[in-house]
């Protein structure tokens, strides 16, 4: 663990982390809007925010200078399925923008450039002085992440990989397995759609809970409501 981070992770305990993101084609995908989402979340008690792209991290850091930021950079690279901060240079950009913790895809899938979970975590620790949140999909990837030195493990990718695509988040079963078998703090992320679900995650041993779409996902929420309304509307 990074030496100067001793008080950061404990501040997350039993807390809400809000993922402030928006689709790239949405008017909400603007650094100032994302920063406003983050500030609104912090004003109401969020212990940290999770932010995608260097530009958005930088905007949030300016708006919320003392707020812990879990930063990531989603990248679709030809020939590879990993997309959450897939390479070290993506992590470096996120760190430079002001993130305190770097979230990375920590599944067992192949990474570009010959990098491995072990090498990228080691470099983030040693060269950037940042903590690492390992986004995993299975208990195997969670165990491998802890072994590689991850500071936090999240259930983020449960249901979003070929191995787990038949499963639907939230990954409460995976959460329980990780809590039982690992020593690092476990964050429940993905599919938390109500305060009651967040409570359930904490009851199952989650150190903290990340909520995104249910709070900040205006585009997806409106789309879901609109579809439901159309589905029950009588035919003309």
UniProtKB/TrEMBL annotation:
Gene3D superfamilies in UniProt: Aldolase class I
Upper lineage: Bacteria, Bacillati, Cyanobacteriota, Cyanophyceae, Coleofasciculales
Protein name stated in the entry: Putative N-acetylmannosamine-6-phosphate 2-epimerase
CDD domains: NanE (cd04729)
Record keywords: Carbohydrate metabolism, Isomerase
Entry's EC annotation: 5.1.3.9
GO cellular component: cytosol
Membrane-spanning residues: none
InterPro entries reported in the protein's UniProt record: Aldolase_TIM (IPR013785), NanE (IPR007260), RibuloseP-bd_barrel (IPR011060)
Top-level EC class as recorded in UniProt: isomerase
HAMAP family for this protein: ManNAc6P_epimer (MF_01235)
GO molecular function, one term: N-acylglucosamine-6-phosphate 2-epimerase activity
BP terms from Gene Ontology: carbohydrate metabolic process; N-acetylmannosamine catabolic process; N-acetylneuraminate catabolic process
């Amino acid at each position: 663990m990074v030496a100067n981070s001793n008080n950061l992770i404990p501040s997350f305990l039993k807390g809400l982390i809000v993922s402030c993101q928006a689709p790239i084609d949405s008017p909400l995908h603007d650094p100032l809007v994302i920063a406003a989402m983050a500030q609104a979340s912090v004003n109401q008690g969020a212990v940290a925010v999770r932010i995608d792209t260097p530009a958005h991290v930088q905007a949030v850091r300016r708006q919320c200078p003392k707020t812990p930021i879990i930063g990531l950079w989603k990248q679709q690279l030809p020939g590879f399925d990993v997309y959450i901060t897939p390479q070290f240079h993506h992590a470096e950009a996120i760190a430079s923008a002001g993130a305190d913790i770097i979230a990375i895809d920590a599944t067992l899938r192949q990474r570009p450039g010959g990098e491995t979970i072990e090498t990228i975590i080691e470099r983030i620790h040693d060269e950037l002085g940042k903590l690492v949140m390992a986004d995993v999909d299975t208990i195997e990837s969670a165990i491998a992440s802890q072994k590689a030195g991850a500071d936090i493990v999240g259930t983020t990718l449960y249901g979003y990989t070929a191995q787990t695509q038949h499963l639907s988040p939230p990954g409460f079963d995976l959460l329980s397995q990780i809590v039982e078998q690992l020593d690092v703090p476990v964050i429940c992320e993905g599919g938390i759609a109500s305060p009651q679900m967040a409570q359930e995650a904490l009851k199952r041993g989650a150190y903290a809970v990340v909520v995104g779409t249910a709070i900040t996902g205006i585009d997806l929420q409106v789309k879901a409501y609109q579809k439901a309304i159309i589905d029950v509307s009588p035919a003309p």
